[in-house]
C-alpha cells in the first residue's frame, strides 16, 4: 500500500469555503486511519458474534455465515428487497410529514406565546406515550392498511421536530432580532429572514432524531397485519422459527438507518452549512 | 473645555469650528436631534436610570461614559426603541421614539448581531431589501458603504470568515446603509484587541464626518471618549443612575491623546468616574478606604478594559 501525502493547500481551490466543516474525512493519512479503525471494529464485532454463535448454537444465535446465506435466500425470492422498499416508504412518508408539520408548528410555538401556551400541555403529555401504545387504536381506527403505519411513524417523528424547532426559536440571539427590527424588518420578515434561518440547525437535529425514532417505531408499526416490511419480516420469522431471518431483518434495519442518517448529514453539510448546521 | 453640570436643558452650545468643516461633505442623511427629558427606565420595581436630561443636537457625537452596570446600555436601548421610557420623554426630531426605527441605527457590542447565513453584502443590504428597494439600489448602497468601511473586497464572504474588527465594520456599514439620522453604538469596540480598537476609533471619526449623522456612543473607556466625542456625558453609578456631568470636548481633530488639554480632561474624567466607582463599592458593602492613588488607577484601568 502506498500512501501519497499531498500538500493541504491547493492553489486552484476556491478561496471561499474557509470555515466549511471538514467534509472529506476520508482524504489523507488521517482519513485512512479512521477507515482502518472502522474496518477493525467491524471485524472484531463479527469475531465476537461468531464466538457467541458457536457457543449457543443455531437455534438461539445465527452465525454470520448462516445469516449471510439466509440473506441470500431472502434476497433471491425478493422478500428482502420488497421489505426494504415497503418499510422505507412508510418511514419516509411518515417522517417527511412529521418534519413538514413539526417545523412550522415549532416555529409558531416558539414565536407566539398564546400558541405555545395552548399546545404545550398536549406536547408534554403525548411525548411520553410511546407509539407502540397506539398500535391497537391505530388499527381499530385506521384499518390494517398503510395509513395506520404511516400515522404511527408520523406520530413518533412530529413531536421531536416540534420540540427542537421551538427550542431553536427561543435560542435565537436577541441582538439579531433587535438588529433586524431596527433595520426596518416587519414581524413577518423577521420570522422569515432571521428566525427561520437561525433555527435551521435545530430543525435539522430534530429531523435526525426523528429519523432514529421512525426506525425504532417501524417494527412495532408492522406488528399487526403487515404483509411486507422489515418489521413484519422479523415478526413472521418468529412464527417459522427462523432465527437467521430475524438476524437478517435486524441487520438490514440497522444498515438502512445508518445509510439514511448519512444521506441526511451529507445533504445538511452541502446545503445548510452556511446556516451554521453542525453535523 | 468647560464643565457643564447636569441637568442641562435647552441651552445649546455653539458648535466648534471643526464641525462646519465636516458638514461640507455629507454623503448620507443628515443627523437627527435627540432629546431626552426627565426620562426614567424601570423594570418592575428595579429602577435602572432616572431623571435623564440630554439634548443632543443634530450631527453631534456624544459619548455616554460611566462605570460598568450604570445603565448606559439601557439608556441606549431606549434611544433605539427597544425599550420604552417609563417616565419622562424621549424624542427624535420632535417625534417620540415608540419602537425600533431604521432612522435610529444600532451597532451592537457583539457581532452575534450579524446574520451569519448571509454574505457581507446581504447583511449590508438587509435594510434596503426589507423596505423593497430595487436590486440596483441595493448594489449601489452596498458598494458605497462597504467602500466607506473598506470592505468592498469582502462582499461575498460570510461573517464567520472575518476577524472581529472586520465584523464590526460590517455592522457599521449595515446600519449606515439605512442612511439613519442617528447611529447608536453600544461599546462597539469593547471586545477587540487594542490595535484593532485604535484603528476603528480613527475610522469611526472619519466615517462620522463623512456621514453627518448624530452619534451616541456608549463606552467605559475614557481615552476612547476623549478621542471621539464632541461632548461626554458621565453617568452616576447605578441603580437609578442619572447624568452626573457633561463635558464639552473642543479639541482639534484629528485628536492626539498626548495633547496637554486632553490629558487634563482625562484626569478630570478619571476623578469624576472614580468618585462613582467608590460610591458603587460602598453601596456593595466593599471598603473603599485605602483605595486611592495607584489602587484606584488600577481599578479604573480594569474597568476601562471591561474586566
Describe the protein's architecture and organization.
The complex is a heterodimer of chains A (279) and B (307). Chain A has 279 residues and is mostly helical. Chain A has helices at residues 28-56, 64-76, 79-111, 113-126, 135-142, 146-170, 174-182, 187-221, 230-240, 243-272. The longest helix of chain A has 35 residues, at 187-221. Chain B has 307 residues and is an alpha/beta fold. Chain B has a domain at 1-11 and 25-103 and 187-192 and 212-307: P-loop containing nucleotide triphosphate hydrolases (Rossmann fold, 3-Layer(aba) Sandwich). Chain B has helices at residues 17-22, 72-80, 120-124, 126-130, 135-148, 164-176, 194-211, 222-228, 260-283, 294-304; strands at 3-5, 34-43, 46-56, 61-65, 87-92, 95-96, 104-107, 182-186, 214-219, 231-235, 243-248. Chain B has a seven-stranded mixed sheet, sandwiched between helices. A four-stranded antiparallel sheet of chain B has the order 3-2-5-6, with helices on one face. The relative contact order of chain B is 0.18. The chains are: A mainly alpha (279), B alpha/beta (307).
**How many strands, what sense, and barrel or not for the largest sheet of chain A?**
none
Strand-pairing-aware structural class of chain B: alpha/beta
Structural class by sheet pairing and helices of chain A: mainly alpha
Shape of chain B: globular
Cα-atom radius of gyration of chain B: 19 Å
CATH class assignment of chain A: Mainly Alpha
Looking at the structure, the CATH topology of the domain at 1-11 and 25-103 and 187-192 and 212-307 in chain B is Rossmann fold
Amino acid at each position: 500500500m502506498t500512501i501519497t501525502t499531498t500538500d493541504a493547500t491547493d492553489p486552484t481551490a476556491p478561496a471561499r469555503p474557509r470555515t466549511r466543516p471538514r467534509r472529506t474525512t476520508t482524504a489523507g493519512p488521517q482519513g485512512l486511519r479512521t477507515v482502518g479503525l472502522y474496518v477493525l471494529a467491524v471485524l472484531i464485532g463479527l469475531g465476537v458474534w461468531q464466538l457467541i454463535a458457536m457457543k449457543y448454537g443455531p437455534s438461539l444465535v445465527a452465525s454470520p455465515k448462516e445469516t449471510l446465506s439466509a440473506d441470500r435466500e431472502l434476497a433471491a425470492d425478493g422478500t428482502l428487497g420488497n421489505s426494504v422498499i415497503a418499510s422505507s416508504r412508510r418511514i419516509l412518508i411518515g417522517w417527511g410529514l412529521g418534519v413538514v408539520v413539526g417545523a412550522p408548528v415549532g416555529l409558531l410555538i416558539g414565536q407566539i406565546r398564546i400558541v405555545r401556551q395552548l399546545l404545550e400541555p398536549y406536547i408534554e403529555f403525548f411525548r411520553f406515550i410511546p407509539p407502540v401504545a397506539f398500535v391497537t387504536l391505530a388499527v381499530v381506527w385506521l384499518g390494517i392498511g398503510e395509513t395506520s403505519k404511516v400515522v404511527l411513524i408520523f406520530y413518533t417523528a412530529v413531536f421531536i421536530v416540534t420540540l427542537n424547532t421551538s427550542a431553536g426559536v427561543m435560542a435565537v440571539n436577541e441582538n439579531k432580532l433587535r438588529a433586524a427590527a431596527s433595520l426596518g424588518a416587519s414581524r413577518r420578515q423577521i420570522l422569515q429572514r432571521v428566525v427561520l434561518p437561525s433555527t435551521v440547525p435545530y430543525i435539522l437535529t430534530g429531523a435526525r432524531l426523528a429519523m432514529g425514532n421512525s426506525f425504532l417505531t417501524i417494527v412495532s408499526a408492522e406488528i399487526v397485519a403487515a404483509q411486507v416490511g422489515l418489521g413484519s419480516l422479523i415478526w413472521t420469522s418468529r412464527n417459522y422459527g427462523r432465527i437467521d431471518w430475524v438476524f437478517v431483518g435486524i441487520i438490514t434495519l440497522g444498515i438502512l438507518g445508518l445509510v439514511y442518517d448519512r444521506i441526511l448529514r451529507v445533504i445538511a453539510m452541502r446545503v445548510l452549512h452556511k446556516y451554521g448546521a453542525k453535523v | 473645555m468647560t464643565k457643564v453640570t447636569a441637568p442641562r436643558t435647552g441651552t445649546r452650545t455653539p458648535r466648534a469650528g471643526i464641525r462646519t468643516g465636516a458638514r461640507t461633505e455629507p454623503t448620507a442623511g443628515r443627523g437627527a436631534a435627540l432629546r431626552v427629558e426627565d426620562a426614567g427606565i424601570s423594570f418592575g420595581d428595579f429602577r435602572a436610570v432616572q431623571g435623564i436630561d440630554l439634548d443632543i443636537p443634530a450631527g453631534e457625537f456624544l459619548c455616554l461614559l460611566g462605570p460598568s452596570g450604570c445603565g448606559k446600555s439601557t439608556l441606549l436601548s431606549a434611544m433605539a426603541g427597544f425599550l420604552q421610557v417609563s417616565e419622562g420623554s424621549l424624542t427624535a426630531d420632535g417625534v417620540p421614539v415608540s419602537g425600533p426605527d431604521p432612522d435610529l441605527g444600532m451597532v451592537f457590542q457583539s457581532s452575534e448581531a450579524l446574520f451569519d447565513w448571509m454574505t457581507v453584502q446581504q447583511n449590508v443590504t438587509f435594510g434596503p431589501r426589507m423596505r423593497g428597494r430595487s436590486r440596483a439600489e441595493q448594489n449601489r448602497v452596498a458598494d458605497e458603504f462597504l467602500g466607506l468601511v473598506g470592505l468592498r473586497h469582502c462582499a461575498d464572504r460570510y461573517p464567520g470568515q472575518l476577524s472581529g474588527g472586520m465584523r464590526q465594520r460590517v455592522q457599521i456599514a449595515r446600519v449606515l446603509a439605512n442612511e439613519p439620522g442617528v447611529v447608536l453604538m453600544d461599546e462597539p469596540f469593547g471586545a477587540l484587541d487594542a490595535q484593532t480598537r485604535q484603528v476603528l476609533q480613527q475610522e469611526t471619526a472619519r466615517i462620522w464626518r463623512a456621514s453627518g449623522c448624530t452619534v451616541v456612543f456608549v463606552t467605559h473607556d475614557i481615552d476612547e471618549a476623549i478621542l471621539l466625542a464632541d461632548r461626554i456625558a458621565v453617568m452616576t453609578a447605578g441603580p437609578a443612575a442619572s447624568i452626573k456631568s457633561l463635558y464639552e470636548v473642543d479639541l482639534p481633530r484629528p485628536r492626539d491623546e498626548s495633547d496637554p488639554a486632553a490629558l487634563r480632561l482625562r484626569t478630570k474624567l478619571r476623578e469624576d468616574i472614580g468618585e462613582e466607582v467608590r460610591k458603587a463599592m460602598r453601596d456593595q458593602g466593599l471598603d473603599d478606604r485605602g483605595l486611592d492613588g495607584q489602587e484606584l488607577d488600577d481599578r479604573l484601568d480594569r474597568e476601562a478594559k471591561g474586566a
